[in-house]
Structure to design on (247 residues):
């Protein structure tokens, strides 16, 4: 189990608190390696017991450097190994106890399948997760997953597996459901995301068709950059429309 934080008083507590970060600062730190991470994702990981930030008297989250490092481990294991959160939690707890625990090999491709040459007319092979693994990671049953698929929120690949981002989508759909927001309510978000993706694709499509491999590589980098900007703009527009500011 994680070490319980003890409270402090006076100058010692103030000195300890001075090194803590807001959730917005943590988001900026993590985005260097995980550009698609969101505040909702961090909150979800907290709700699942993967990280335990302190709380100010007014209820704001305050993260230590150790919390940020732990979040990095969680996101890295999801991105590179696609493990269920329960397995990740057990792995991190074992690490904190000083135990040596090996992770499974990175699932970038199916066994025996050759890795295609980067940018050879298509994006590199992405890590994928099986249906049972997705169900376990999201903590839902077949009926819920089938409903998400009917609304286009998650879509299986040609071989029936799912791309890595489906885990994030599933986690967010579950979290929104706790507030009474049903999958059918999210169709507008999916349609908006498709339009934003289409806009980005219009910008980078000419670069992707270029014969020069370096130019095609530049197209992928530009697509990631534009995707990050559209996500940030979408977040800012939603906050403006609601008249709220995320901490």
């Amino acid at each position: 189990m994680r070490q319980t934080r003890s409270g402090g008083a006076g100058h010692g507590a103030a000195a300890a608190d001075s090194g803590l970060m807001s959730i917005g600062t943590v988001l900026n730190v993590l985005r260097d390696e995980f550009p698609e991470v969101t505040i909702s994702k961090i909150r979800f990981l907290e709700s699942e017991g993967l990280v335990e930030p302190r709380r100010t008297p007014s209820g704001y989250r305050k993260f230590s450097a150790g919390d940020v490092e732990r979040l990095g481990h969680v996101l890295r294991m999801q991105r590179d190994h696609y493990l269920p959160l329960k397995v990740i939690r057990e792995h991190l707890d074992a690490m904190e106890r000083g135990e040596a625990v090996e992770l499974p090999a990175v699932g970038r491709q199916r066994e025996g399948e050759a890795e295609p040459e980067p940018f050879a007319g298509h994006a590199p092979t992405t890590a994928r997760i099986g249906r049972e693994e997705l169900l376990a990671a999201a903590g839902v049953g077949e009926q819920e997953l089938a409903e998400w698929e009917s609304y286009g929120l998650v879509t299986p690949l040609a071989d029936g597996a799912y791309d890595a981002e489906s885990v994030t989508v599933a986690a967010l759909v579950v979290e929104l459901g706790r507030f009474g927001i049903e999958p059918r309510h999210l169709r507008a978000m999916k349609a908006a995301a498709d339009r934003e993706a289409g806009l980005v694709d219009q910008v980078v499509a000419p670069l992707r068709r270029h014969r020069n491999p370096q130019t095609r590589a530049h197209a992928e980098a530009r697509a990631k950059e534009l995707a990050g900007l559209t996500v940030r703009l979408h977040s800012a527009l939603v906050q403006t429309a609601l008249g709220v500011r995320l901490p």
The chain has a mean pLDDT of 78. Strands lie at 54-55, 61-62, 128-129, 162-163.
